[in-house]
Write a structure and sequence with these properties.
Elements: H1 4-47, H2 51-64, H3 74-92, E1 114-116, E2 119-121, H4 123-139, H5 146-160, H6 165-191
Antiparallel strand pairs: 1-2
Helix pairs in contact: 1-2, 1-6, 4-5, 4-6
């Protein structure tokens, strides 16, 4: 296969299939944590002055509800070695230089560039940010965390703005697949009556 863009998309699909069970558990853990927010707020109000007692009560709540507070982080942590490896591959692979994919992406080893009205626009980081925004909007139900809905996509856009289009294509595709997975999970949950 000579179209490396398609190879990157297929690779992101394979990685998504491999981490699917972990992502599923992560999304479930996030949903459980959202449901616990009122109880956690009550504990903070009750034991706010005693940090040790608050921590004990929080851990008891997590144990009683069978929730792992860091369970939602595992898929992201597993992605880090892949992202670092891909960063190095896309930066150094001679095969990717001048390897185009579609339309404006003519070099997967460089940031994507689309000229609009004399301005350089990096479309993939913007698509990635949009997918992150939608995903965060679906996940974040707590109004206190609403700022993260906006901050994380902007922060990640800033990080990925000058990265190789191959890396951003991988991450964007992975985000889109996670978004689809999350949507299907929510629809299934609604269909089954919220269980």
């Amino acid at each position: 296969m000579s179209n490396y863009g398609l190879v990157i998309i297929i690779f992101s699909i394979l990685v998504k299939v491999i981490v699917f069970p972990l992502t599923h558990k992560s999304l479930e853990a996030t949903a459980k944590m959202q449901k616990l927010q009122p109880q956690m707020a009550a504990l903070k109000e009750k034991y706010g002055g005693d940090q040790q007692k608050l921590n004990q009560e929080m851990m008891k709540l997590y144990k009683d509800q069978q929730v792992n507070p860091i369970g939602g982080c595992l898929p992201m942590l597993l992605q880090m070695p892949i992202l670092i490896s891909l960063f190095n591959v896309f930066r150094g692979a001679i095969e990717l230089r001048q390897a185009g994919f579609i339309l404006w992406m003519d070099d997967l080893s460089q940031p994507d560039r689309l000229w609009v009205g004399g301005f350089e626009v990096h479309v993939l980081p913007l698509l990635m940010a949009a997918s992150m925004f939608i995903q965060q909007k679906m996940t974040m139900k707590d109004p206190k965390q609403a700022m993260l809905v906006y901050v994380m996509p902007v922060f990640m856009t800033w990080i990925f703005w000058s990265m190789s289009s191959g890396l951003v294509l991988y991450w964007t595709m992975f985000n889109l697949l996670t978004l689809v997975q999350q949507h299907v999970m929510e629809r299934t949950k609604a269909f089954l009556g919220g269980t």
